[in-house]
């Protein structure tokens, strides 16, 4: 069995932004399918603002990957799709995980040899090589991964981090060895990675996108006393303590504030 995909990698409007294993991030320089002046102007400014359509391509070679439900656009080759659920017990566990993390209960598995194209997105795509590690992922970011990774639910180690931190009691986690693709709110070039060695990171806001499961996550006062917290103007902060890594999106809260409607003017 053989196939050729024409006008994709050899398209002058397409850039291969990153490749890792069988995963490739495709970016379209411009949206060429404009039918009006308004669409043309919109596409021009979106392109200049680094807001371009992206697509994940996965090339299988007698291998297996897991996708987020509904992510597949089309696939070519000798590829078999299964639900990834083993019996009624597996479905119940997946449904509980889905309710806890806000993700789909079914993450289909694709096995064989061929090419899978995922749906296009204006969000940013990250490829991460999880090398015998265990990372926790912010809700809604999982897109695809090699089946060698164990995708499960990581529970908060204490209730305060969920109730006070606004993060929820559970998150998806990836453990083991393999490649994972994430759909992120910022480009990977903008992410700040903090490597802690038996140290403490305090974050004023919910803009940690990933962190090592080895870290203890709590929510604490920014100062040792109520007066100290009041003087600092920070109040409560998210605290990551121990040895591990944290990926931060430092501009995300600023962007979110720009999207908030302004109050009435006098």
Automatic annotation (TrEMBL):
Pfam families: AIM24
PANTHER family linked: ALTERED INHERITANCE OF MITOCHONDRIA PROTEIN 24, MITOCHONDRIAL
Domain of life of the source: Bacteria
Entry protein name: AIM24 family protein
InterPro entries reported for this sequence: AIM24 (IPR002838), AIM24_sf (IPR036983), Trp_RNA-bd_attenuator-like_dom (IPR016031)
